[in-house]
Amino acid sequence: MTRRASIMLTLVLAGCGKSAPSNEAASAPANEATSASSNALDKWPGYPKTQPDGSPLTADYCVKVGAEPGSPFDNTKTCLMVACDAGDKASCDGAATFNGNMWPDGEPPSAPTEQLTGRFEAGSTTAMGITGNLEFAPGRFEFELDQTYRVGNPQLVDASSAYSKAGDTWVDVLIIPNGAKVALWPVIDQTIGKRGRQQSLCGQGGKVGFIATADREDGLALAAFKGTRAPGSGMDDAALCGTYFYDRAKK
């Protein structure tokens, strides 16, 4: 081998030696992330791991198709949980508020004691005409005019926070002080009897998604929302069905 060829071979080998660690360092995190995501998705056999066009699952996609008849996910929450394990943070947030089963930090704080048990008398014209008096047993809103709502664990939010995209706050809609707390109850199912005449908190035949309650000095304020998204700054303004006000039952 000539001196020139020997020098060239040395340079090539040296270059290879330098590049190998660089490639290894660059690829390791990506490989680890892919492996972690794959392992997380192993617990969802039989469910699609992407959208039909091959793009990643997203919260918007799950909300759109999750509850459709014939959906491959059976329901919205399953889709959100698969998407969450695939790495979509918005889907994790969505699954956390769906049906009240999974709040971000574990079990949500309990709502104020006054909201958990007790009887309230219809105070507003709307409450008198649509619901009648209210009795709350743990996990159930039971209204005098044949309406019962089974609810999940509540999440507490500040009265000063927005309940929709328009920016209106709970203070505005429930007529409560800035420092009050609002309990958001996800509705698991509802039963409307004959006296209810198919009239739910969300109107004729309407399905209620969330019930919001807040203590007032003279009783209880309540608002009903349709849809599967918890009320908040990202919620559509049209999701608010109506507000109802109740007086504390006289002992």
Folded structure, characterized:
With 251 residues, this protein is α+β, with helices and mostly antiparallel strands. It has two domains: 23-106, no CATH class; 113-248, no CATH class. 32% of the residues lie in helices and 24% in strands. It has seven helices and eleven strands. The protein has an eight-stranded antiparallel β-barrel. The protein has a two-stranded antiparallel ribbon with strand order 7-8. The longest helix is centred in the N-terminal third of the chain and has 39 residues, at 3-41. The radius of gyration is 27 Å and the shape is elongated.
Amount of helix: 25-40%
Supply the number of helical segments.
Answer: 7
The number of distinct structural domains comes to: 2
Tell me about the largest β-sheet: 8 strands, antiparallel, barrel
Shape summary = elongated
